[in-house]
Design brief:
The complex is a heterodimer of chains A (261) and B (246). The relative contact order of chain A is 0.16. Chain A has one domain (24-259): MetI-like fold (Orthogonal Bundle), CATH 1.10.3720. The two termini of chain A are 12 Å apart. Chain A is flat and about 70 Å long. Chain A has helices at 27-45, 47-56, 58-86, 91-105, 109-123, 128-153, 157-166, 170-200, 212-223, 226-254. Chain A has ten helices and no strands. The model of chain A has no long low-confidence stretch (mean pLDDT 88). Chain A is mostly helical and 261 residues long. Chain B is globular and about 55 Å long. Chain B is an alpha/beta fold. In chain B, 38% of the residues lie in helices and 24% in strands. A six-stranded mixed β-sheet of chain B has the order 6-7-8-3-9-10, sandwiched between helices. Chain B has nine helices and ten strands. The N and C termini of chain B lie far apart (40 Å). Classes of the chains: A mainly alpha (261), B alpha/beta (246). The A-B interface holds A 156, 158-159, 161-170, 172, 176-177, 180-181, 257-260 and B 54, 56, 75-76, 79-80, 82-83, 85-87, 89, 91-97, 106-107, 110-111, 138-142, 152, 155-156, 159.
């Protein structure tokens, strides 16, 4: 992303393939075509049990996507609010947003899942699916909030000063000037967080949500084909995240900077 | 409506950064149509003083009245007062995600509720005036520094302000581009715009200013008409500054 200096990019998403990684044997290609080839090889040459497993899982993949998509939508909304709150000059709003981020980042997602699930169950009976989405959104809302904050802070202070000096209010400045510029910085890490979120949805299988991993566990416990089932699960997760990371990198390239570069 | 009430009245303004007194009980009045150039070494408080006029810089003590409005007012009113005060920055600060034309029309459309077609016609007229109408559809990143600054001046003018503030408008420019920006400012001065200019361009101060202010260590040391100020400064520090810079 940055044009100057060294940039250490460690994310919990997936390695986003760079444009220059065009070599035939880039890590992305090895993993992607390797996983596709393995997948096909297994279901064609050893249909029992692999084809049976593959036929058992699509429901779970669908649920994984549903949880992922719903959680991303809510996490983005929470993240936007949190990010703006974190740069707010209002002390109370700032404190609330910052505390939320600190709190969530300090607690493992799995613990949060249990906590929200059982805490909610004390007051209201919500479907497992809803509890899962709430927990994922609350957790990733905090991470997204940090992404939004960094994006907002990456915009030069002069933009705000120019806007305010024309007579725009703080809110108008955010809407017309800051956010439209910040989203270009924000989008790639948001893509990353989304991939991380998708992987972390595997944790909701604990909550009796029939996602990909849960479906696999059901199959394995009936057939005792643990190794074969989890091989398929791993390959399917890998293929999904690799496709998504490719999409994020394509997106990144498209974000050419208003005539620059 | 020519009366003696100054359009900008700064009274005993003090501004402290940490333990540095950026402004120390500064008072300054600017009449309507007057062109005031503020000179001084870096760190003298001249930019800070300029920025207090539209409250980009909050003051700790003192009073600022612009066009009859007290600037120490509530946040909602400050936005209305700022619409009457154009500002040009050292680093241009054009909106990178907007075209040149959109940079000029955004504020009139959103704040003055000017119809889009009308705002665009006015924007093109201003772009013609600053000599850059052919770049209306370009993005700021595609322009040179001098072009960007001329667009920035046009953007400020698009709000039809009563006062224009210039904060070292040519300091970030390559030498060959300074002239084109100063030309625009001279034209503006001739048209009777009230201007307060912080600059190091002595040539501009000499021809365009009605009054020159010399600041040092957060205080106004000397002020006067440019003819007298440049040829016969009365204060030692002014003499030293002028000898270094001329």
């Amino acid at each position: 992303m940055s044009e100057s200096g060294t940039n250490i990019e460690i994310t919990d998403g997936a390695a986003i393939p760079r444009k220059r990684d065009l070599g035939l044997f880039s890590a992305w290609r090895i993993c992607f075509f390797g996983s596709v080839a393995t997948f096909l090889y297994l279901i064609i040459f050893t249909p029992d049990p692999y084809l049976r497993i593959a036929k058992f899982l699509p429901d779970g993949i669908l649920v994984t996507f549903e949880v992922t998509f719903a959680s991303i939508v809510f996490a983005l909304m929470l993240g936007l609010i949190t990010g703006i709150g974190r740069v707010s000059k209002n002390g109370l709003i700032n404190a609330v947003a910052s505390t939320y981020v600190e709190l969530i980042r300090g607690i493992p997602l799995l613990v949060q899942l249990f906590y929200i699930y059982y805490a909610l169950a004390r007051f209201v009976r919500v479907p497992d699916m809803v509890a899962a989405v709430i927990a994922m959104s609350v957790c990733y809302g905090a991470y997204m909030g940090e992404v939004f904050r960094a994006g907002i802070e990456s915009i030069d202070k002069g933009q705000t000063e120019a806007s305010r000096s024309l007579g725009f209010s703080r809110r108008q400045t955010m809407i017309y000037i800051i956010l439209p510029q910040a989203w270009r910085t924000i989008l790639p890490p948001v893509g990353n967080e989304s991939i991380a979120l998708l992987k972390d949805t595997s944790l909701v299988s604990i909550l009796a949500v029939a996602d990909l991993l849960r479906r696999g566990r059901e199959f394995a416990s009936e057939s005792f084909a643990y190794f074969e089932t989890y091989t398929m699960i791993a390959i399917i997760y890998l293929m999904i995240t690799l496709i998504l990371s490719k999409l994020v990198s394509i997106l990144e390239d498209r974000l050419n900077y208003y005539g620059k570069r | 409506m020519e009366n003696d009430e100054p359009i900008i009245r700064i009274e005993n303004v003090t501004k402290v950064f940490g333990n540095l007194k950026a402004l120390d009980k500064v008072s300054l009045s600017v009449r309507k149509g007057e062109k005031v150039v503020i000179l001084g070494p870096s760190g003298s408080g001249k930019s800070t003083l300029l920025r207090t006029i539209n409250r980009l810089e909050e003051v700790d003590r003192g009073r600022i009245i612009v066009d009859g409005q007290n600037m120490m007012t509530r946040e909602s009113d400050i936005n209305r007062i700022r619409m009457e005060i154009g500002m040009v920055f050292q680093s241009f600060n054009l909106f990178h995600h907007k075209t040149v034309l959109q940079n000029l029309t955004l504020a009139p459309i959103k704040l003055r509720k000017t119809p889009k077609a009308e705002a665009e016609a006015e924007a093109l007229r201003l772009l013609k005036k600053v000599n850059i109408v052919e770049k209306a559809e370009a993005y700021p990143a595609q322009l040179s520094g001098g072009q960007q600054q001329r667009v920035a001046i046009a953007r400020a003018l698009a709000m039809n302000p009563k006062i224009m503030l210039f904060d070292e408008p040519t300091s970030a420019l390559d030498p060959e581009m300074i002239g084109e920006v100063l030309d625009v400012m001279r034209t503006l001065a001739k048209e009777g715009m009230t201007m307060v200019v912080v600059t190091h361009e002595m040539g501009f101060a000499r021809e365009a200013a009605d009054r020159v202010i010399f600041m040092d260590h957060g205080a106004i040391i000397e002020e006067g008409a440019p003819a007298r100020f440049f040829t016969n400064p009365s204060h030692e520090r002014t003499k030293l500054f002028l000898s270094q810079i001329l």
